[in-house]
Amino acid sequence: MVKMIRRSQLGLQLVGLLLGLSAVAGPPNILIITADNLGYGDLPSYNPKTTVKTPHLDQLAAQGVRLTSFYTASPTCTVSRACLLTGRIAQRHGLVNQLPGLAGNYGVGLNQKEILIPHVLKKAPVPYVTGCFGKWNIGFAKGSRPTERGFDEFIGHASGNLDYYHHNYRTQHDLYQGTKELHRAGEYSTDIFAEAAIDFIRRQSKAKRPWFCYLPFNAPHFPTAGNKRRGQPNIWQAPDWAFKEIGLSPRESNPKKRYDAVVYAMDKAIGRVLSALEKTGTADNTFVFFMSDNGGFRLGREGLDIGINDPLRHGGVTCWEGGLRVCAMARWPEKIKAGTVIAEPFWSPDLMVACARLAKAKLPENIVLDGKNPLPLLTEGATSSHETFYFNYRNHVALRQGNWKIVREKPNRLWQLFNLKDDLSESRNQAKERPDRLKKLKASLAAWEKTF
Questions:
Q1: In angstroms, rounded to a whole number, what is the distance separating the alpha carbons of residues 220 and 325?
Q2: What is the rounded CA–CA span in Å between residue 222 and residue 220?
Q3: Which has the least CB within 10 A, 5, 43, 238, 319?
Q4: Three-class SS state of 210
Q5: What residue ranges of the chain are covered by domains with CATH 3.40.720.10?
Q6: Is the pLDDT of residue 22 over 70?
Q7: Does residue 13 carry a pLDDT above 90?
Q8: What fold, for 395-452?
Q9: Could you read off the pLDDT of 343-377 as tens digits, one per residue?
């Protein structure tokens, strides 16, 4: 009898072990987190001189890979998000400008025929449950809302920015659950989005379903006067505890110090989300990717353009490196080597392809994708699959090829040429010295434009 019990227990242990191995070997969960206008030089892992404290992002970088040549496909919020979710640059998907005002933010926005990452993942061999929590900003007309574009769940806002506590964009209340308004005045938006993501992760992990969580924070987007009520100061908004934990008073008046509190509050929210992975036992089987949607703005607006892009030139809404090259990191335990740094260039449209590969899903057919598979680069140390990167926002155009880059600020301006390997700050124009190189890059740019 004792032997039979022991054999039974051993059998149960083996079954449990096999089930555990099966769970780990299943399709990985996918968590994509974006910050809003975070500067390349804001994080300690990129800039030891920064005053910002981000212990959880520092830890994420240490546990995975820090990317030093990762590009957003557009230097502005709306367009960058559309490029990430479609795997296509703006000149293909058609959403080439920031959505303006109430009419723009609540209009159609991105062409409703465009296929997004959640569409692909829901058709994987093991279909994914999909959730979006945070800033949408690519159209909120009927048919354009997240739960109509492949996401099963959504808590967030339609617009490009909102008041962090009142949740309004201009005159419009702008916080939604699904397609219905959600009223949670007084709660900090960063925390609302993080807690929604945590709840989603807990529920889907308990149900043992593979999930895709897109967590686009609105932080640390600058405060917007048009969102404030009469008498409300237009200042950076963070919870009192965030100020206190970094040694400041909630009544601090210095814009840079208030900005630091906003970033710190976002970092702590990210920490809670990552902790939820550990608590649900899904951390080892979750691919985590963090990036800023574009570089910090450097337009000279006092008290607003706070983010640091050093050592890069300029910032958001430009095709200088400060607008396009963004802080980014990835973690996938036992697949991505911890504590590594990758300088090979790749960009946000690659995430569409990465998600499809992770889920073993088919990519959209009969459309041009600008993304390529970045997983060999992240997990095997492979070189970049891209020969060139094309950027175009309004009148500003740029192309990177190898270590060389050309930039033209307006159609009537001359092209400038830079060697990013030796001149990351784009301070030495070599167009006159290297006309052969300039001609080659201009030809590559023209080849791109023939494909649109």
A1: 17
A2: 6
A3: 5
A4: coil
A5: 26-387
A6: no
A7: no
A8: Arylsulfatase, C-terminal domain (3.30.1120)
A9: 999 999 999 999 999 999 999 999 999 999 999 99
DSSP character at residue 203:
H
What are the tens digits of pLDDT across the range 207-265? 999 999 999 999 999 999 999 999 999 999 999 999 999 999 999 999 999 999 999 99
The predicted model gives 106-129 an average pLDDT of 98
| Inter-helix orientation angle 255-279/189-206, to 10° | 10
What pLDDT, on the 0 to 100 scale, is given for residue 25?
56
Burial class (CB in 10 A: 0-12, 13-18, 19+), 337: middle
Alpha-carbon distance of 35 to 201, in angstroms, equals 19
Question: What single letter denotes the amino acid at residue 369?
Answer: L
CA pair distance 144, 129, nearest whole angstrom? 19
Whether pLDDT at 10 is above 60: no
Q: For the domain bounded by 26-387, which CATH number is listed?
A: 3.40.720.10
Question: φ, ψ for residue 12 (rounded to 5)?
Answer: -65, -40
Token duo for residue 304: 């607003």
The pLDDT tens digits for 135-178 are 999 999 999 999 999 999 999 999 999 999 999 999 999 999 99
Query: 352-374 in b/e burial notation, b at 16+ Cβ within 10 A?
Result: bbbbbebbebebbeeeebbbbbb
Cβ proximity of 230 and 166 under 8 Å: no
| Residue that is written with structure tokens 């926002």 in the block | 393
Q: What six digits make up the tokens of 343?
A: 């300088």
| Residue 10, helix vs strand vs coil | helix
